[in-house]
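Write out the 3D structure for:
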Amino acid sequence: AAISTRYTVNWLLENTLSFKKEIGVHRVNAVVGFTLQEDVTKTSFQAAYGFDQDTPDNLYKINEAEVKDYEQKSNTYRWSMVSVLGRINYTLLDKYLFTVAIRSDGSSRLSKDNKWATFPSTAVAWRISQEDFLLNVNALSNLKLRASYGLTGNSWIPMGSSLSELNLKEHNF
């Protein structure tokens, strides 16, 4: 008979501040932000072996003396992440668009020397459908040519895999 439980709490706090300004043919939109996230998972496992009969009632007898072999485990897994981010969009004549963004993430899943990474990105776009030579073409309501470049990362590695492991074993010589 065996019983296992799992309890998880995950919370996310996101704070952003935005700014918009339009002056004639120029439009600026900026965002800065800060995020916090934490996940805590607690697990437990109990198993008992060697009952005279294997019945559902054995689940309630795990802590009783009639058990011949018993196993119990419990673990707590915790990870957290902190992020700081910013983005600026600039639009000229509602045709030419420029974006610059940056994000820095720190994760407890990563090794001590590599907890933080920064991910910049940039993009340019040309809203061709706003040009005079396409304004009367009804078949194209929003034709845009866009190019972008950015860096990404991944912190979804198994917890503890950035740590070295030490196993002790007994040997007889």
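The chain has one domain: 2-150.
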